[in-house]
Amino acid sequence: MSRRLLAALCCCAVLNFLSLRVRPADCSLGQGLAPESALETSALVSLGMRRLTADLGLVRMLIYYGEPEGGPEVGEAQLHSHYDPEHPEFAWGGGRYSELGTRALRILDADPSFSYAALLAAGALAFNLNRPEDALRVLDYALSRDPRNLQFQAYVAAVGFHRHGDANGVIRRLAPVLGTPDCPVMIKHLVAHLYAKDGQRQKAISLYRQIRDTSKDAGYRRMAEVALERLVVRGRPR
Amino acid sequence: MRNIAILAMTGWQENLRRRFYLLSLAFAGVFLYMSLILGVLAVEQENRVLLDFGLGFIELMGLAGALYGATTIVLREMETKTVYLVLTRPVGRGEYILGRFLGLMLSVLASMALMSAFHLCVLWAKGWRGPEPYAAAFLGAYLKVLIMAALTTFLAIFSSSALTAGVISGVAWTLGHFLPEIRFLIIHGTSRAVIVPVFVLSYIVPDLQLFNLRDRLAAISLAAPEAGLAWWLGYAALYTAVWLALAWGLLRRKEF
Questions:
Q1: Does residue A161 form part of some domain?
Q2: φ, ψ (nearest 5 deg) of residue A31
Q3: How many A/B residue pairs have CB atoms within 8 Å?
């Protein structure tokens, strides 16, 4: 029996050796674990649910970015009530959201193909929180894991134009990726605002309508309605 | 071959009588409830979260059913002496193990397929239309469960304890999913004393991450080349055959 067991173990070893040759090792978790979700992440990864780990990371990131940094005492209505397109960061509580980039990198660790999380974090960092360097760090990491992703490349270019204050450059780079399924509504809203600011009223209205009709985010739907009222009813961009 | 088919069908019918499919109903209830919560939390990524959560849950439910079956079926028949009724007839012990195993895996497959049908209904109702290859993810999950069931069958006969077999299988399941991290540790670790046992283990435990197509649904076009269907099936078939053959060897040595 011991000889059979040894033969069986040798068979397993050969199979695993071949599996290593056929399929290169997956990307391991390189960013370390977040203290608040270390146990949850370890448990899910050990159960073989890396994608679900990334999903829960996204939910946590959305909650983190959706709350004011000062604490949860400021209500949602108060947060969104004074939306100013010139300073969108104030509508989301302002602040630095210093963990936003790191959280996005952890999500990419768990699922390198989860472009939505990287695009959302990079867009928020670059265009809402005015931290293009941090946004580029997220995009660089995302590109190192998924080098052929054209959306990441477009975002890198758009962030570059944004740093130089070239709104048209940002529009040119982001417009082609607006139709992709992973494009966050935040980016659509930003481009719609830039269209309106640039005098491209019809394009702005069309994009705001798309946000109003298709977005699952009630906050952005409401902001699109306000913008549409301003553009269509009053007929003037702000 | 006829004996194996009869034993497999008997195993299937026994599982039906034992309400094996209550697992599927439990899945449906939990999933419906969770889908309502997750939809609110994930906002724009609701469908992705529903897809991942559902596939993961189906796999865990399938695993629970397979481990329970693999740890109890043969042991219970030995304890209750029911095994005499089978083995006193012209049925080989290899046929007995294979028939019982196939009956169990048929039940698990039907249960997972039921859950998947419900899962797909919910996804369609929420507007999901792909493009993720659902069938590939389902196949990967089933192959993982198949491998674990074979390993657990061997462990149950080897240890004569359902609890021991279940615990060791749970550890193997965990290690099988940590293989990328274990291999990372082997390459970058410093202490040889720590690395040697881990190195040995990395070649014994099944490479379950290989079958985790669910986690690579959108990443199949990434830079890393993806192994083909033939390789997955071959690996699963060989690994399963190895542990079932060992279980057969053990059963041959047992005296009833």
A1: yes
A2: -90, -5
A3: 142
Domain that holds residue A177: 36-183
pLDDT tens digit string along B150-176? 999 999 988 888 899 999 999 999 988
Q: Is the ipTM of this complex over 0.85?
A: no
How many angstroms separate the Cα of A62 from the Cα of each of A34, A148, A156, A197, B227? 15, 26, 22, 28, 35
- The Cα diameter of chain A in Å comes to 86
Q: Is the pLDDT of residue A173 over 60?
A: yes
Which candidate, B187, B219, B131, B133, places its Cα nearest to that of A145? B219
B183 and A59 within 8 Å at the Cβ level: the answer is no
For chain A, say whether B248 makes contact (Cβ under 8 Å): no
Q: What is the mean pLDDT of residues A61-86?
A: 59
A46 touches chain B (CB under 8 A): yes
3-state DSSP assignment of residue B89: coil
Span A141-165, pLDDT tens digits: 888 888 878 888 888 888 888 888 8
DSSP B215-234: GGTTGGGSSSPPPPHHHHHH
Query: Is A144 inside a domain boundary?
Result: yes
Domain count for chain B: 1
Residues across chain A: 238
With respect to residue A195, please indicate whether it lies within any of the assigned structural domains: no
Q: What is the distance between the alpha carbons of residues A228 and A225, in angstroms, rounded to a whole number? A: 5
B69 Cβ under 8 Å from any chain A Cβ:
no
Helices B22-42/B46-79 angle, 10° precision = 160
- Write the pLDDT tens digit of every residue in A41-54: 888 888 888 888 88
Q: Give every CB contact of residue B235 below 8 A, 6+ residues apart in sequence.
A: A15, A18, A19, B207, B210
Note the pTM of the prediction, 2 decimals: 0.80
Total domains present in chain A: 1
Shortest CA distance to B181 belongs to which of A235, A123, A28, A214? A28
A204 belongs to a structural domain: no
Q: Which residue of A has its CA nearest to B44?
A: A216
Closest listed residue to residue A129, CA positions, set A72, A81, A69: A69
Q: How far apart are CA A31 and CA B216, in angstroms?
A: 20
Q: Domain range holding B126?
A: 2-218+225-253
Residue numbers of chain B with a pLDDT score lower than 50:
220-225
Picking from B31, B41, B43 by the largest number of A CB atoms within 10 A of its own CB, the best residue to mutate is B43
Task: Look at residue A79 in the predicted model and tell me its pLDDT.
Answer: 46
Q: Is pLDDT above 50 for A21?
A: yes
